[in-house]
Write a structure and sequence with these properties.
Elements lengths: L9 H11 L10 H4 L4 E5 L2 E4 L4 E4 L2 H5 L8 H13 L10 H12 L6 E5 L2 H20 L5 E5 L8 H5 L4 H4 L9 E4 L16 H16 L4 E6 L2 E2 L5 E2 L4 H11 L3 E5 L23 E4 L11 E5 L1 H5 L23 H15 L2 H22 L3 E7 L2 E9 L4 E2 L2 H13 L2 E2 L1 E2 L10 E4 L7 H19 L3
Parallel strand pairs: 3-16, 5-6, 5-7, 7-10, 10-11
Antiparallel strand pairs: 1-2, 2-3, 4-12, 8-9, 11-12, 13-14, 14-15, 14-18, 17-18
């Protein structure tokens, strides 16, 4: 397919964008000379910019979102029809698509039972934090307000979710932060701590969480918030033994387990949810990005019935319920889109495809690892893949962020969009992050690997 840039006034659009739009995660000074990139068309795995350039999108909308690909008319049609029928009413009342989607979602999440709607991953995690804090007051006399989060994990852009972020550069300049958020060590085996038991690292890493709990006081800690696979922090899967031990610790100390599935949820890792690979039974699960594949804004905070029941206790009928609202949690476009999104994943066997294509992709990337010493580690699950670049494999010294930027820039110039750890850490912004849509084919993976091959060859020439 080609895209005709004459289909719209591209110069006018680019000028208006440059003059009036404040872009996310962007330094705008360069736009004064080059103008911003404007994406105008998407179909399947590919997007086109205002100049007519075509790109293979290997990060699903740049932020791991468009799980079922671009141009899905069936989702757009469902949203249009629903908005004409009933576009919005606050979630103080129910609506048809929310009821239908909630049932379909819960059917994929044994042990979970209640869905709270909002409109972004940050907001979904805020709701979870508020649930934990209110339970602390309702059940524990104001104790157990502390929430543990993990080094390298990321949970959102608001002040509270940044307070729970294990990424220094994303937090930098936004403090002071909300109190009672406490960090626990990461579980990246490739970057194992110096004193770690490397023979049983998964259990050792989980036990470091227990040490923090004991130091803080178990009676002060309400929840542990973890990504099932650390995504933007470098695509880190916990080693064997980690998750069973985490589950034991949470039960032992009466701590709610909150799993942040904002990236991993809805098929990204080859199962409906990332935690389902590990036999974990969470109390709270949050999700956003892939829930509707970007066709409408929606996020969900899902809880067990036991958590929900705590807010039905009538000892304080005026104040004891969950006193929270999300304005656009009442928009029907989100659940209407999400319902069709799930049907597409089912009907096209996209969970299986994510597993198969991810395995193929990691195999091809390991071939590149044999070719280029700069590749220190290839890791991931399903279509969530990380490539950590190093100066020296023996010392694992990371490359500078500029090197990873150069690889990404070369890929972009050759029609492939990849991701990377972006201004997240002091010294570990050295991982290429890949999250192509679940509809990916072997040919797409081959194009992606070919672009990476060319880029790494160019960037490492003379190093």
């Amino acid at each position: 397919m080609t895209y005709d840039v004459n289909d719209f006034d591209s110069l006018d659009v680019v000028n208006n964008d440059r003059d009036h739009v404040w872009h996310h995660l962007a330094q705008h000074k360069p736009f004064e000379q080059t103008g911003p990139m404007v994406i105008v068309k998407g179909e399947g795995m590919r997007v086109w910019d205002s100049k007519g350039n075509e790109y293979l999108d290997a990060v699903s909308g740049a932020v791991w979102t468009v799980n079922v690909g671009y141009g899905r008319t069936e989702i757009a049609d469902a949203v249009r029809d629903q908005l004409v029928e009933m576009n919005y009413f606050a979630q103080t009342a129910g609506n048809v698509p929310a009821a239908k989607f909630s049932k379909k979602l819960i059917d994929k999440m044994p042990g979970m039972n209640r869905v709270y709607f909002s409109n972004s991953g940050s907001e979904a995690n805020e709701k979870a934090f508020k649930i934990v804090r209110q339970i602390a007051h309702k059940k524990y006399g104001g104790k157990k307000t502390k929430i543990l989060y993990r080094d390298r994990d990321y949970h959102g852009t608001t002040i509270a979710t940044l307070s729970a972020s294990g990424q220094y550069e994303r937090r930098n300049q936004y403090g002071p932060f909300v109190p009672d958020f406490v960090e626990v060590p990461h579980c990246c085996e490739y970057r194992a701590q110096e004193d770690a038991d490397k023979s049983n690292y998964g259990v050792w890493a989980a036990n470091q969480i227990e040490k923090v709990i004991l130091a803080e006081g178990a009676d002060t800690i309400g929840a542990l918030c973890l990504e099932p696979i650390t995504a933007g922090g470098g695509v880190i899967e916990a080693p064997a033994g980690y998750w069973p031990r985490v589950q034991e610790i949470c039960k032992q100390y009466d701590i709610l387990l909150h799993i942040d599935e904002v990236v991993c949820g809805l098929g990204r890792t080859g199962t409906w949810f990332g935690y389902q690979h590990y036999g974990v039974k969470p109390d709270i699960v949050t999700m956003a990005k892939g829930v509707a594949s970007g066709y409408a804004a929606i996020s969900c905070t899902v809880t067990t019935e036991a958590v929900f029941e705590m807010f039905k206790e009538d000892e304080d009928p005026r104040m004891g319920y969950f006193r929270d609202i999300s304005t656009f949690g009442g928009c029907t476009a989100g659940p209407a889109a999400a319902l069709v999104n799930m049907e597409i994943i089912e009907n096209e066997n996209l969970l299986e495809n994510a597993s198969h294509q991810g395995e193929y992709l990691r195999g091809r990337l390991n071939d590149l690892k044999e070719k280029y010493p700069i590749i220190g580690d290839v890791r991931g699950k399903g279509l969530l893949v990380g490539i950590e670049l190093v100066k020296d494999r023996a010392t694992r010294e990371p490359v500078e962020e500029e090197t990873v930027m150069a690889v990404a820039g070369h890929c972009m110039a050759n029609g492939v969009i990849i991701g990377r750890t972006n201004r997240s850490f002091k010294a570990l912004n050295n991982t290429i992050c890949l999250a192509p849509a679940l509809i990916s084919t072997k040919a797409d993976m081959d194009q992606l690997v070919a672009a990476l091959d060319d880029a790494i060859a160019e960037v490492t020439r003379g190093m």
